[in-house]
Amino acid sequence: MLQLNITKRLGDLDLVVDAQLPLRGISAVFGRSGAGKTSLVNILGGLSTPDTGELTFNNQTQKSVLFDQKTGINLPPDKRNIGYVFQESRLFPHYSVRGNLNYGNKDKDSTHFNKIVTLLGLTDLLDRYPRSLSGGEKQRVAIGRALLTRPNMLLMDEPLAALDLPRKRELIPYLLELTQSLDLPIIYVSHSLDEILQLADHMLVLEQGKVLVNGPLQEVWDSAEMRPWLPAKEQSALLTANIAKYHDKYAMTKLLLDNGTYLWINGKPSALGKTLRVRIYANHVSISCERPVSSSIRNILSATIAAIDSAETSDNMQIKLALGDEHIWANITRWAFDDLALSIGQTVYAQIKGVNMTESELAQSF
Q1: In terms of domains, do 64 and 164 share one?
Q2: 71 and 21 in a common domain
Q3: What ranges in 81-209 are assigned the alpha helix state H?
């Protein structure tokens, strides 16, 4: 685990972080502008020094104290063995891609070099110079340069923020491949929830310098602390599903949920057996007290009402529907709620009009 227990005065903001982050997969740091996200990763990288506290990197093979105010330990950036990818690529314009990649690459291991170059799709770019690269290509080079230093951890500070949508879509598959191919923890700063949903396994939310919530992505996404951050149209649930089969006749794919129920989506998003994360918007879910017949909606699941949430002044009700150990939400009108006489513990049928994949290419179900 990466253990953080630090304080830092930043102008009018007091950054106070007491949290643990896993040393596996991608941990996203999320918050509004000025919440302290970049300041936190600068502290992790040794670019900024906390006022008090300690930072400890503790994996299966080593334990390193990066900072301890009480004992006077404060490792400089070059001693922390942490890679850093900034919002801008910061490449050397007079070096080729190969030269930029090898900057800081001390061991010049050709096998490792070729692995990173292949992983990031840089083989055909090695002899080109930064001025001839797209924004996405520059960021891939910057990531490769950081990886070739063989870091114990990679910090990424809004690496997609300066890119347009096509370049973001170009880069996200490479980031996903990194998490699958390299046993390397990544701390990923972003103010984009879409990026986080596509990439992250863990999520820490900062608000005015304080930790609002911290934990596995699905738990944080569904937490009471997170829901006020999302407008009604963005309220949704995250589910884990496995690709079980393709329809024999139609271009549709069957996804199995952990409780044995299933969802159908359009297209063939990936290989059979692959585990995917799906997002179901509350506005795409309706409720029926009896199982509908002769419906165009393909996904109709039996569910139990687990919770009912509504502000007194709101005309809408948010209904939490349990699907075994997992659940989804439905936004319905107060009129519909009263008409159906819904109550906690009641068995109903959830009609799911849309299912979104949290990948760079979205799949829809109707």
Answers
A1: yes
A2: yes
A3: 97-102, 110-119, 135-147, 165-181, 193-199
| Same domain as 262, residue 145 | no
CA distances from 288 to 169, 185, 300, 310 (A): 38, 44, 9, 19
* Boundary residue ending a domain (229, 263, 282): 229
Query: Do 280 and 299 contact (CB within 8 A), yes or no?
Result: no
Structure tokens at 71: 């004992």
> Is residue 366 a part of any domain in this protein?
no
In DSSP terms, which residues pair with 330 in a beta bridge? 319
Secondary structure of the chain: what % helix, strand, coil (to 5)? 25, 35, 40
What's the confidence (pLDDT) of residue 362? 35
Give a yes or no: residue 307 inside a domain: yes
Among 182, 212, 229, give the residue marking a domain's end.
229
pLDDT of 260 reads: 82
Q: Is residue 347 part of a domain?
A: yes
In this structure, are 215 and 314 located in the same domain?
A: no
What pTM was computed for the model? Answer: 0.83
User: Tell me: the pLDDT tens digits for 76-103?
Assistant: 998 888 999 988 888 999 999 999 998 8
CA 357 and chain centroid, separation: 13
- 78 contacts 95 by C-beta, under 8 angstroms: no
- In a shared domain, residues 207 and 291: no
Q: Which two tokens stand for residue 332?
A: 């319905």
One-letter amino acid identity for 79?
K
What's the CA gap between 120 and 140, in Å, rounded?
Answer: 6
23-26 long-range contacts (CB < 8 A, ≥24 apart) are 23/57, 23/58, 23/59, 23/153, 23/185, 24/183, 24/185, 24/201, 25/179, 25/185, 25/186, 25/200, 25/201, 25/202, 26/175, 26/179, 26/185, 26/186, 26/187, 26/188, 26/199, 26/200, 26/201, 26/202
Q: What is the pLDDT of residues 293-306, one digit of tens each?
A: 889 999 999 999 99
Residue 363 pLDDT greater than 50, yes or no: no
